[in-house]
Amino acid sequence: MTAGNEELELKDRLSLIETMIAEGRRTTESYGWTFVLWGVAYYVAIFWAALGHDYLAWPITMTVAGVLTAVIIARKRSKNPATRTSRAIGSIWYAMGISMFVLLFSLGFSERAEPHTFIAIMAAMLATANAASSMILRWKLQFTCALVWWALCVYACFGKSNQLTIDNPLTIAFLAALFFCQILFGIYGMILEARRCRMAANHA
Amino acid sequence: MPELPELNPVIHGKLRLALLSLLVGVDEAEFTWLRSKTGSTDGNLGAQLLKLEEAGYVAVDKQFVQRKPQTIYRMTDAGRIALTEYVQALKQLLGGAMGR
Q1: Longest Cα pair distance anywhere in chain B, in angstroms?
Q2: Which of B64, B46, B16, B91 is closest to A10 using CA atoms?
Q3: Best label site of A8, A120, B9, B37, fewest CB within 10 Å?
Q4: Helices B77-99, B14-23: crossing angle, 10 deg rounding
Q5: How far, CA to CA in Å, does A7 sit from each of B14, B30, B90, B97?
Q6: What is the CA radius of gyration of chain A?
């Protein structure tokens, strides 16, 4: 083999390493649907609770949404290997979900779930998870969602009402935040993910 | 003049190098995912993965998911070190080749 051929082969190996590392990290995972699912679940819980069944609405809706999320993620996970980034982001959301479940259920059963505190806690937790994910992904749009949740958290700390009725300004603010930061953001995420999958398929 | 390094022959094979480079970016990967990424045949892929396993560069785990068998591969610490050393040697050789 000539020196020129040898050099070409070595460069070819280096380029192969770079291509394969990029290929391994190129993820086709999709999580936009989780935002939409949970956004819809919160809407169902709020409207169901407004009908006067709040002791059933939140526990049932949240449990069903949690089980659905776990089942769909387990099915999708078998097709794609986890990258370190996806594991890091997943850990944040799992930990937040468990904290929210434990805290809000305990508050509910101990009858200390005053609506303003309830929403302030939920907003603060959602802000934390969104902010941490956006910092890992360097995604400004998701950080904007975190800012919206923090603003709602501050707003929820003021005022006092015993019922989260639909005409309550806090309920309206909560529904608006859910619409923009869960449903719209989730749909936008799904569009981006679909585009990325198409690009990956074309690349293959 | 410093002596040029030898390239690790286990890693130097194109498919084996591709497999290690894929595995370095993920926690673990299933056989079918590796096959789709490398475009290799089952037989060739299995043979090359066996060589990497014998060298201690990948660890294999066989399991059943929804009654379907799955073979999961992950890179070992030895594999990670070997790949790093291979890349360093490659860069050194290329540096030498450029200097000729």
Answers
A1: 60
A2: B91
A3: B9
A4: 120
A5: 15, 34, 10, 6
A6: 22
**Interval A4-48: pLDDT, tens:** 777 888 888 889 998 888 877 666 567 889 999 999 999 999 888
Q: Would you state the pLDDT for residue B20?
A: 95
Domain around A196: 3-203
Question: CA of A45, closest CA in chain B: separation in Å?
Answer: 33
Q: Which is nearest to B79 in space by CA: B41, B49, B36, B34?
A: B49
Q: Residue B63: beta bridge partners?
A: B70
Q: Which residues on chain B are in Cβ contact (under 8 Å) with A83?
A: 25-27
Out of B22, B36, B94, name the one closest to residue A20 (CB): B22
One-letter amino acid identity for A20?
M
With residue B91 as reference, give the H or E element that holds it.
helix B77-99
Considering the segment(s) B9-94 as one domain, its CATH architecture is Orthogonal Bundle (1.10)
Residue type, A12: D
Beta bridge partners of A10: none
Please check whether residue B24 touches A, CB under 8 A. yes
